[in-house]
Amino acid sequence: QIENVSNDLMVARRSDGTLWCWGFDDMGVCGGGSFPWAQPSDVDCVSDFWVDGFAVAQHPDGSLTVWGGSTNFVYGENPAVEPLKLPAKPIEVKPAGVNLVVLDETGTSWFRGNIGFTWKNGDGLDSREQLSQLPFAPGARQLGRGCMPCVIYDDGHAECLGSQINGQFGLEGVDAARDPVALPIEGSVRALISTGSTCAVTEPNGDVLCAGNNSFGQLGVPWSYEPQPFFSRVEGIPPADIVKFGAETFNACALTEGELWCWGENSFEAIAPTNDYNLAPTLVEPFADVVDFALASSFLCVLREGGSMWCRGAFARGGCRHGFDWTEVSFDECWTI
Predict the structure, then answer these.
(1) Contacts of 331 (CB under 8 A, 6+ apart)
(2) Mean pLDDT score, 122-140
(3) Which of 13-17, 31-35, 235-239 is predicted least confidently?
(4) What's residue 195's pLDDT?
(5) Higher pLDDT among residues 158 and 162, named by residue
(6) What is the pLDDT of residues 23-40, one digit of tens each?
(7) What's the order of all strands across the beta sheet hosting 244-247?
(8) Which of the listed ranges 103-112, 114-123, 126-135, 316-325 does the model predict with the highest average pLDDT?
(9) Cα–Cα distance measured from residue 7 to residue 294, given in angstroms and rounded to the nearest whole number
(10) In Å, what is the CA distance from 310 to each residue of 179, 292, 328?
């Protein structure tokens, strides 16, 4: 399993259960000290692991320990926090920008940090010293990912709150959702990511629907730079079951059975070896046996059947150095700084 921690940091979970980090660790996620170009570190993880500039370990008793990230938002003023505890056991923990969002077994959602309704600090929900309940109704089954807190319910509808400056909730004439709003998405939402744009994988057809910022073609609408305050289907992905969907500020990818389709900025030719900018959905070649992927703003890594990992794009920071051509990552040879 591979995931991007932030724009320039990667984490890989190996078959023996250990976690390895490499890249620009300016937030201390890998526990490597103050030197930012972190050598690969075997991260001690008690139960599970979530990352986006900070990391969270869930202990067997359900409590959470946080490290890395922004001490101002996630920890309060003291980064050496005691394990965080909830009334009910957490079943899902995800970052939302600089915030920690938790879903417990009752379907109640919680957060720690600052959720802004505008770009001004302090205008929003603030809970820097403890986990506080989000105003979503209990009964959610799943959290969304991205900068804005979102939840998905058993009936398939999704709700979000926070800034809507780019129309990413599909609501025209609304700059911010100060209370949870239901996203106007056709079909049942299976997965959701909300950043400057919002994309959802829906059932029963496996469509990807997106709204919001399209400055880099991240809505799958190439060569159109205008924000789109309504959800539309991303055209060009063959009908297939989407195994995994991922998006960051500038790009998005959908993994089907063995094939990876990506679209967006294509910075440093991470998606395709071409100078094209604002790509429509494009098949990532030459691999047809992709089982997992990790997407960052300027590089892309894929995990293939058999366990080999390959990366492409502008990623020459600490540890594995690869370039514009696909390079296989070697855990034995690739860690020299």
Answers:
(1) 12, 14, 20, 40
(2) 80
(3) 31-35
(4) 80
(5) 158
(6) 555 555 555 443 333 344
(7) 244-247, 251-255, 260-264, 279-283
(8) 103-112
(9) 11
(10) 42, 11, 4
- Predicted local distance difference test score (pLDDT) of residue 34: 35
Question: Residue type at 322?
Answer: H
> Which tokens hold the place of 191?
């997965």
pLDDT at 39: 40
Residue 314 CB: number of other CB atoms within 10 A? Answer: 17
User: pLDDT-derived band of residue 323, with 50, 70 and 90 as boundaries?
Assistant: low
Per DSSP bridges, beta strands 260-264 and 327-329 are unpaired
Place of tokens 């469509």: 207
Buried b (16+ CB within 10 A) or exposed e, 232-257: eebeebeeeebbebbbbbbbbbbbbe
The radius of gyration of the chain from alpha carbons, rounded to an integer in Å, stands at 19
C-alpha 211/C-alpha 303 separation (Å) is: 29
Judge residue 157's burial from the number of C-beta atoms within 10 Å of its C-beta, 0-12 exposed, 13-18 middle, 19 or more buried. Answer: middle
Cis-peptide, bond into residue 286, ω within 30° of zero: yes
